Design the sequence.
């Protein structure tokens, strides 16, 4: 008899939603590193180029400022000093002309002469002379007097404060350009808060420039700025100018990239391009990897399904053979059981009559023979009962069974032989829905098997515990255990290692347990005892209580 098993249609494997594969991560990491290297490498080149261009432009600014400032101031002071050589009136006329021509960019012009240890104003023109102590005939002291004392043949510069507290650029020149023991002095008002606007048509309009008197970048030293934010910070270039006998400092900063917007953006362009290529490559590698994994999973599932189908086919064929064999055995067992039940009943009655007839005799040998005959008849009757139970299993009638009471009853019905002790525990386990007589039969069978497995004595433990939605009942002994071959056939009908065993006890027990939707297994190693594990489902009420 053959059975053909059709392979079921398998659902296609679902696409994996896990993180990127290692290969994809590696590709992405490589391109991220390349992108970073391109960005920082190109950025360094661009920054170096920007620095060189700023240095060149700053140097040009310094040269231009040095030439224009020195020549302009030198020309103005030389003209005034030459007029002072002629007369005080000539100086006054020249100073007034310069003051008018400056349109407010010059605040005061003075001609001072040293008298004793101080300086006296000989002639002066300008605004607020009296408040600043620069009127004709006034004795000058403070920072202005210090400047006059430090003035020589070259231009001398500094920053002084007016009486109102506003800063002013002070320029002086002494002999031989000026008369002996005299100094020509000019003041220019400063307003660092008002940057000088630069149009696109003017040179160096791409730079923000700040000019300081001296070499320290301080707000009170600022002469002029083309930016509202001072001091200039960031990528700046400083240039020192020689103005007369002192040094002025120019700070320059680019308003926009000197190398061009495209060049300035080149690091980002290259980095983003490399990163975009990396993302594309990562996507390709990930798609290829996922397709490969999909194919492998599909092959594995198809192979597993085929193996499962073959296994089920073999199991089905084996089950058919076993069922046919069991059916034949059951039919034979039923026939033998029926045929033997009546003769055994007759023998039992006969033995009762014979024992009654010889009850008054004192022949011990005869009584021993009668006892032996009765035992053998009882054994034959038990075999017939097993055969009938195996051939026609009784339908279960479930009731709520207390396992602790069932353990006590089994231990009292089948008391342990000498040298064997029985322990049982089922505390906290709710009643199970089962046929009490059938489950009692299973536990008695397991208990008597445990006794027979311990010819030298030992301990039998019957326990019950909740495992998930089932109750697990264990009957464990400390006997000789079973080898692998015995474990593989222990539930086969008519398989027994006992001299007088029928081999139906465990087969019937397994059938009873499976009829209760449970399982029965044997856990054993040769020489290490045996544990029979019986599982029964909890009733719905018990599941609700223990959920």
Sequence:
């Amino acid at each position: 008899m053959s059975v053909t098993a059709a392979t079921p249609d398998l659902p296609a494997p679902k696409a994996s939603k896990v993180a990127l594969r290692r290969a994809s991560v590696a590709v992405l990491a490589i391109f991220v590193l390349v992108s970073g290297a391109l960005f920082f490498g190109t950025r360094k080149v661009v920054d170096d180029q920007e620095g060189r261009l700023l240095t060149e432009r700053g140097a040009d600014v310094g040269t231009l400022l040095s030439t224009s400032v020195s020549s302009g101031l030198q020309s103005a002071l030389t003209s005034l000093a030459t007029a002072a050589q002629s007369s005080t009136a000539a100086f006054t006329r020249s100073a007034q002309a310069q003051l008018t021509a400056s349109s407010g960019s010059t605040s005061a012009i003075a001609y001072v002469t040293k008298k004793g240890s101080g300086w006296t104003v000989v002639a002066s023109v300008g605004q607020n002379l009296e408040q600043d102590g620069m009127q004709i005939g006034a004795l000058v002291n403070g920072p202005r007097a210090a400047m006059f004392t430090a003035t020589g043949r070259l231009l001398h510069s500094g920053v002084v404060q007016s009486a109102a507290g506003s800063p002013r650029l002070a320029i002086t020149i002494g002999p031989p350009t000026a008369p002996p023991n005299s100094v020509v002095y000019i003041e220019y008002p400063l307003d660092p808060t008002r940057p000088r606007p630069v149009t696109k048509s003017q040179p160096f309009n791409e730079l923000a420039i700040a000019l300081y008197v001296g070499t320290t970048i301080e707000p009170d030293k600022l002469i002029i700025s083309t930016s509202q934010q001072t001091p200039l910070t960031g990528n700046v270039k400083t240039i020192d100018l020689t103005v007369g006998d002192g040094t002025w400092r120019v700070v320059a900063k680019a308003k926009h990239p000197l190398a061009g917007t495209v060049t300035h953006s080149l690091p980002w362009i290259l980095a983003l391009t490399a990163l975009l290529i990396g993302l594309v490559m990562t996507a390709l590698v990930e798609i290829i990897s996922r397709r490969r994994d999909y194919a492998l999973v599909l092959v594995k599932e198809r192979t597993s399904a085929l193996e499962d189908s073959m296994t089920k086919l073999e199991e089905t064929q084996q089950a058919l053979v076993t069922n046919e064999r069991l059916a034949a055995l059951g039919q034979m067992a039923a026939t033998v059981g029926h045929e033997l039940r009546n003769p055994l009943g007759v023998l039992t009655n006969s033995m009762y009559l014979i024992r009654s007839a010889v009850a008054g005799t004192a022949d011990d040998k005869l009584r021993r023979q009668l006892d032996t005959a009765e035992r053998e008849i009882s054994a034959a009757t038990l075999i017939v009962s097993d055969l009938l139970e195996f051939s026609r299993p009784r339908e279960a009638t479930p009731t709520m069974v207390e396992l602790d009471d069932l353990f006590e009853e089994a231990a009292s019905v089948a008391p342990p032989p000498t040298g064997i002790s029985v322990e049982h525990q089922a505390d906290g386990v709710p009643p199970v829905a089962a046929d009490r007589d059938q489950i009692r039969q299973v536990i008695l069978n397991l208990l008597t098997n445990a006794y027979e497995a311990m010819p030298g004595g030992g301990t039998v433990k019957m326990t019950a515990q909740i495992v998930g939605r089932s109750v697990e009942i264990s009957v464990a002994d400390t006997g000789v255990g079973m080898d692998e071959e015995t474990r593989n056939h222990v539930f086969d009908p008519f398989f027994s290692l006992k001299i007088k065993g029928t081999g139906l006890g465990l087969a019937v027990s397994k059938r009873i347990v499976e009829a209760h939707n449970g399982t029965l297994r044997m856990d054993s190693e040769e020489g290490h005892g045996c544990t029979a594990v019986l599982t029964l489902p909890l009733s719905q009420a018990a599941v609700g209580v223990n959920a």
Remarks:
- The longest strand covers residues 458-467.
- The chain has ten helices and 17 strands.
